[in-house]
Each structure stands twice: as C-alpha cells, then as structure tokens.
Design a protein that fits this description.
Number of strands: 15
Helix content: 10-25%
CATH architecture of the largest domain: Alpha-Beta Barrel
Oligomer: single chain
Number of domains: 2
CATH class of the largest domain: Alpha Beta
CATH topology of the largest domain: Aconitase, domain 4
Amino acid sequence: MCIRDRNIKIKSKLGINPGSEQVRYTAERDGIIELFEKLESKIFTNACGPCIGQWNREGEDNTEKNSIIHSFNRNFAKRADGNPNTHAFVTSPEMVMAVALSGNLDFNPMTDNLISEDGDKVVLDPPFGDELPSNGFDCEDNGYIEPPIDGSDIQIKIDPDSKRLQLLEAFSPWDGKNIYNAKLLIKAYGKCTTDHISMAGPWLRYRGHLDNISNNCLIGAVNAFNKKTNLIKNQIDSEYGSVPDIQREYKKNKIDTVVVGDHNYGEGSSREHAAMEPRHLGVKVVIVKSFARIHETNLKKQGMLALTFDNENDYDLIQEDDTFNFIDLEGFAPHKQLTIDIFHSDGSKDRIKANHTYNSQQIEWYREGSALNLIKKGA
C-alpha cells in the first residue's frame, strides 16, 4: 500500500542525496523525486554532502544528544554534522524510510503501526521495487568536460586573496641525509581516523586551499599525555597550544617533527588532505603501531616517512618532550629496518627499530619529495 494514498507524513526530517547526476536525472524522470518532494523531503545536490558533514543542518541544538539514521557510509559521532552530540547509525534505505515515517528509533515496520493524518492505523507493506530502472538510466548533462590533449599552454589564474583556492607548491625533495633532532608533535591516543587528522564538515570549504585547511591538522587527535584534543606541548617554550599553531612554529624555526599513533592509524575516509596537511606544515615522519592501508599509501605519495614500530610496545616509550634521531635513513631501502634513537628530557635514551613497506618506486617518491614530483619529472 503506497503511503501517499494513506495521508501519512514523515515525522522526522528526511534528506535524499542522489549518488550522481545520472541517478538524480533518472529518478526525476521516473517521478521518484516528485514523490519525496510531496513528503516534504529535502533533495540534496548530487555531491559530497551529509556523508562528510558538508551541509547546513538547520534547527539543531548542538548541546542536545541526537541521532542521524542514514544509508550511506560512516557511523561515528560528529561525522555527519560536526556536532559531537550527534550519533550516526547506518542501516538500509528501507529502514531509514521507516524511521523517518515513524519518528522513532525503535519503530519496527514488521509489527508496529503508523498513524495517518486522519487518525487511522496503517501497517506498512513489505518493500518492493525494481532493482534497476525499467527504462534504463538517462542523463542530459553529466558535467564532464574532456581536457585538451596538450594542456601546456593553459594558465590557471587564482585570486591571490582567495580563501578557498590556492595553487599547490611542490614539496621539497629529500636531501638524502639522516634526520636529527626531530621533535615529537603529538602522540595520538587510541582511534585516530582521517577525520581526526583532517576534519570534514565546514572545513571542506578550504579543500582547494592547502594552507587554510591545514589549520584543522590533527585537531581531533587525542593527546596521549593529557587525553585532550588540540592541546599539545610546544617544546620551544614549554607552553601548550593547538596542534596547527605549534607545528607552524616548528616549521618557522626549521624544526622537523614526528607524529606517533596507535593501531589502524588513518582509518576511515581515504581523504588525501590527512596526508597533505602534515606534510605541508612540516611533519617529517609518522610512526604508529599499524596503519590503515590507504592512508599509509597517501603518506608515501606525499613524500613522508610512514613507519611502524617493530615492537608495538615501544609506543609506550614515547614521552612528551622526546627528540628523535633517524640514524640510518641514508641507507633507506626496501625490506630494511630503520633505527631510531629517542632522547628523553631526563637524559635517558631508547633505541628502537621501525619497519616500513616502501618498494623501490615508493622510495623514489620519498627521494623526489612526492609522487607528483616524480611524475612531473617524467620518471
């Protein structure tokens, strides 16, 4: 039984986010968009939106615990709207619709009734539908502009005062030397996803401006020494401040830095900014118990050292005022461990081993400063 024939209105705010212009156009052609519009749903543009917090969620109190029920990826707090009090639950499109119609998280569409605007009890029929559009997919304008074969004469002009766009500058190549006197930037505690490293939501307005979006670098990571986010010790003056501000000061003073992480560091979205931002700000090395595979590769592509503890218990050796020497980096090669001397503020020292998964080509990325640098070089 169709809900539009029973005078039923949705009890929760319902958003529809088409996955592509082809999907949106086909759904509009077949009357599906009109059906949702009659239910007073919000139809989003077919682009990154609620799934990365890139939307204006009106009328919500940021201090009140609330939930978003959705059928796309990501199911952790704050992801969908930047509010730490917002929980996210992933389910099927059918269950999303059932919850929207009932307004209750505990609604069971197999046993519970809805109440129509006329006061009648309504039982939902089991969902059914075509797996694919019976008339096929269609699209008038997919937004694709084929690039020219030879783009050497094309100039990209950006307003120098733009806050949202900035031409990328090539990262500096490795000088071929060992790294000495690198300072600990942050020892991340527990889960550290790419959202912790580079938050989505309102920050994504700056994704075309690397320097501006880098002001969110690691602001969601939990500092292992005080269990707080975005509050770390500056080894220059022993004062505490935000991660991006202190890292910028290290960069200004030509001090290399190290980020230490826990298990599955960089899980979640494959967001490249989570690798580009620390690289841009001057972080040289990330040492963790284990990496999420895609983030590890992204760090490599940006010309950073992505290392894992040979003994994961060495994570516990890292102290807040530590200094790192990478004493055999000059011999960087596939399947060869690196040796790190860690100097503590009490004068003691620990020597540890670190592993890596760089192959010969990826080591060339590191030597050249990034994969893009190597591509531009024509290698």
